[in-house]
């Protein structure tokens, strides 16, 4: 039995930061002595003494035999995995590695159309051919949920040669599909189920939270420990169980994708976050759930606002659970778009959401939030409803609320072929019916509306322009002003 009180990597980093010696190795600031004064004033010098490289006592991320190996073993035990890898390039590199480890050039992979852009990058790097499934869509809430077991079953019947299935669990809104059923179906074809569980790292630590992906039968899951737990930004983990995935291929893929100079600050934060949750996770999540429940109860009583709760989802196909720590507020009843509300809350009322959509704002309530945060959130919405409310959304805005469900998607080339093809940049007005050569997505949540290989359609162009006009931010493409697009020549 491993001792979850231990923090082997954190302890080794602390000891090496305190050891008196003359440093003649990277990084160049040499234990903080060379750091610029404004940066030292902001962060203090102690953090830079711990910004160390692969010293003998600190192990090697790509061939761990010491404290990194011990820390990863402790994490595997805490998250109930057979093996865990620490990630310093975020969940992005974990998703990419999962695809590279299971799919080669021309291999098929089944995945939802609303995947994160990291999955598209994985398709480009691997040369895999995506078999896209449309997620279930709620036209009342204007929210895309999860893919269903039935859609996965149908896809596997049509494509029994697929090498893997990838799904998102939970979605950005905290909605969880029937992962157990999807795992059972996938395993009937003896292929692995890969899960983007970036927003579900806390699930393993409280019975009122949804079932963790591994417990539901996933073969591989990638979790952003920094998004919902206590690690530093970029710090994530990849977990596997069973024998459907070659561990050596995961390790080799991560060597391609991760920095050869990994930040030990990030690695140590993973070790510390694991210990924190292993020892105190249930208590921390109980407190977090209480804060989330208070926020939902009070905000739902404000006229013009409603919050996403489980009874609203019970009619959705494939729905199993909702992450109670995720707060999605529908604001269209105020006569405002989510983008407008996001701007008012952030700039005038001191409240910053995780992301906005046309009708909603979504907030992550985590172990780091306090009762004071919840009070400010509730008061922000109270002030908003009193002082900024309009009679209704304009007809123009109402027309566009559901447009994203009418978009036409057609893959003409594989993402890899289109990405590496000879391309040209054209004015947006001249790109209709051309093949896209870049990723274009409103961010967050980073779900591509166009990707390399897809045919650009009039409806997609109009949708992107409207999202931008209403305050959304377009990312991923060469010209974020969206005056031009890169297309296959």
Description:
- The strands form 6 sheets. Strands 1-10-9-8-6-2-3 form a 7-stranded mixed sheet, sandwiched between helices. Strands 11-13-15-14 form a 4-stranded antiparallel sheet.
- β14 and β15 form a beta hairpin.
- α1 crosses α11 and α4 runs parallel beside α11.
- By secondary structure, the chain is of the alpha+beta class.
Key terms for this structure?
489 residues; alpha+beta; 7-stranded mixed sheet; 4-stranded antiparallel sheet; 16 helices; 19 strands; 37% helix; globular
List the helices and strands and how they pair.
Elements: H1 8-18, H2 37-43, H3 46-49, H4 67-78, E1 83-87, H5 90-102, E2 108-112, H6 117-126, E3 129-133, E4 137-138, E5 143-144, H7 149-158, E6 164-168, E7 175-177, H8 179-188, E8 193-196, E9 220-223, H9 225-228, E10 236-240, H10 247-257, H11 264-300, E11 306-307, E12 319-322, E13 326-330, H12 338-348, E14 355-356, E15 360-364, H13 371-387, H14 395-400, H15 415-420, E16 423-427, E17 441-442, H16 458-469, E18 474-475, E19 484-488
For the record, give the distance between the C-alpha atoms at the N and C termini, rounded to a whole number: 59 Å
Mean pLDDT: 92
User: In percent, how helical is the residue content?
Assistant: 25-40%
Major sheet summary line? 7 strands, mixed
Low-confidence stretches: 395-405
Please tally the β strands and state the result.
19
What is the percentage of strand-forming residues? 5-15%
- Supply Rg: 23 Å
- Summed up, the helix count is 16
**Overall 3D form:** globular
Q: List the strand order in the largest sheet.
A: 1-10-9-8-6-2-3
Question: From the helix content, strand content and strand pairing, which structural class follows?
Answer: alpha+beta
């Amino acid at each position: 039995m491993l001792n979850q009180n231990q923090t082997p990597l954190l302890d080794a980093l602390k000891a090496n930061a305190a050891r008196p010696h003359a440093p003649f190795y990277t990084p160049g600031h040499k234990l903080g002595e060379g750091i610029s004064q404004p940066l030292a004033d902001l962060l203090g010098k102690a953090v830079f003494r711990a910004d160390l490289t692969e010293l003998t006592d600190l192990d090697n991320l790509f061939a761990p035999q010491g404290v990194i190996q011990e820390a990863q073993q402790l994490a595997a035990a805490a998250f109930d995995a057979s093996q865990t890898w620490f990630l310093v390039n975020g969940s992005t590199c974990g998703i990419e590695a999962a695809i590279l480890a299971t799919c080669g050039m021309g291999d098929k992979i089944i995945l939802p159309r609303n995947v994160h852009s990291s999955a598209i990058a994985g398709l480009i790097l691997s040369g895999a051919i995506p078999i896209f499934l449309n997620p279930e869509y709620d036209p009342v809430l204007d929210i895309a949920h999860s893919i269903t077991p039935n859609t996965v079953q149908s896809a596997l019947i049509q494509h029994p040669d697929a090498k893997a299935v990838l799904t998102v669990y939970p979605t950005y809104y905290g909605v969880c599909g029937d992962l157990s059923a999807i795992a059972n179906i996938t395993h009937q074809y003896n292929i692995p189920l890969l899960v983007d569980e970036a927003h579900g790292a806390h699930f393993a630590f409280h019975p009122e939270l949804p079932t963790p992906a591994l417990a539901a039968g996933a073969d591989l899951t990638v979790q952003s420990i920094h998004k919902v737990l206590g690690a530093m930004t970029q710090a994530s983990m990849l977990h596997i169980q069973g024998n459907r995935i070659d561990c050596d291929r995961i390790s080799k893929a991560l060597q391609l994708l991760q920095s050869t100079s990994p930040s030990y600050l990030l690695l140590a934060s993973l070790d510390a976050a694991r210990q924190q949750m292993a020892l105190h996770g249930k208590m921390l999540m109980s407190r977090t759930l209480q804060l989330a429940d208070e926020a939902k109860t009070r905000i739902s009583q404000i006229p013009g606002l409603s919050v996403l709760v489980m009874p609203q989802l019970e009619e959705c196909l494939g729905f199993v659970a909702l992450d109670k720590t995720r707060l999605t507020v529908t604001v269209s009843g105020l006569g405002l778009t989510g983008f407008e509300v996001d701007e008012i809350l952030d700039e005038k009322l001191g409240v910053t959401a995780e992301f906005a959509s046309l009708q909603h704002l979504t907030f992550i309530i985590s172990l780091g939030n306090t009762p004071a945060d919840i009070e400010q959130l509730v008061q922000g919405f109270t002030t908003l409803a009193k002082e900024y409310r309009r009679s209704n959304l304009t007809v123009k805005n109402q027309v566009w609320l559901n447009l994203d469900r009418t978009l036409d998607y057609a893959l003409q080339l594989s993402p890899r072929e289109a990405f590496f093809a000879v391309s040209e940049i054209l004015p947006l007005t001249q790109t209709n019916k051309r093949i896209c050569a870049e990723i274009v997505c409103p961010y967050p949540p980073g779900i591509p509306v166009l990707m390399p290989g897809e045919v650009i359609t009039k409806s997609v162009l109009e949708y992107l322009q409207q999202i931008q006009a209403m305050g959304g931010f377009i990312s991923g493409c060469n010209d974020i002003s969206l005056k031009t697009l890169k297309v296959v020549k």
